Amino acid sequence: MYASRSPNNKRYTSFDDVLARFPQPARDGMPDGVIHLGFEDREPCDIAVESGVARVVPSGENEARASVRCSSGTFLELVSYRADFRTLVQDGRLAVEGDLSFALGIYSLLLKTNSEAIEYFRTVDTMPRGEPLREVPRVRRPTRGQVLDVLARNTPLIAAGMMEDWRALQWTPERVASEYGDTTVVLERQVSISMRELVARMCDVSPNTDRPPYVNGCQLPDAMFPDVQPSPWFSPRDFLPPQLWMGAAARENPSTWLHRDGGPVFLGQVFGRKRVVLFCPDQTPYMYSASVSLNTELIDPDHFDRARYPLLARAVRTECIIEPGDILVLPLGWYHCVWALSPNISVAHVFANNATWSG
């Protein structure tokens, strides 16, 4: 019998609990500025970063670098890990204007990470391991027991042939535009766009474009749900709503910068190919990571500032290529950076907080 639990992050009990976290140090390299938090059901609040310290300041006295508007209840859900930032924007429950990177930096300061979560990540970061993983094993139609084993050992796996009953494997950008053209998705800068317009922009991308249009993990639109099957090894109730990743290939830059997630990830490749660079959790001392699941530092492990991130050069990496029909099983704590090698579509299932599994 094997059982595991994703970080169990307790809720804030009130907005005063959020404000009680300040003043606190800002993240390294975070610029000075003010974020305005506007609420539908309570007085607004401003948080300022100055000289490396974040603190609450009187609202409206300074020009805002970024602004957020939502209900206080939605805000508490967001900073307690009970709601996904991208999904709230997509659903219209959260509006962000101005400098998104700055807003995400403030968000990372507010996230409620309790001692259980910290201990869980410390466990996977320091668990005994043998030789570094040089190649991600590829297994044709692995059993539930095999997947449980890699999760227990905290090692990744490419599961081939597990998406053969997904209608989504018939997706191409053109077919998606034809069948779901009026469906709205959210790009990485929190810009809403129709699927038809997204595909048109994907087809019009220059080979030298550094940041082409990319749907960076927004919730899979409801209309597309029937084409996707949940993980064949676990209950759908164990997962957050599936995420859509879709866009054109960039000239050099990653589609997704170096980060790690708050739960095991099952990344299903639907169309096109992706390159994934992985770092084991025991490489955390070299990763410049200050958060469980959100990295606001935009690090490309292929091209990075060695003066700013000297330790990263010492980290041991593993690489793999995933193709249509592959599911990359990524256990908790593994850092990863992803490149789209061609126009591509992926669907990810992430274990929800408190998800358990046994075998």
TrEMBL record:
InterPro entries: Cupin_8, JmjC_dom, SCP2_sterol-bd_dom, SCP2_sterol-bd_dom_sf. It is found in: Cytoplasm. Keywords: Cytoplasm. Its main location: cytoplasm. Residues 209-359 form the JmjC domain. Coiled coil: none annotated. PROSITE patterns: JMJC. May play a role in cellular stress response. This is Cupin-like domain-containing protein. It comes from Pendulispora albinea.
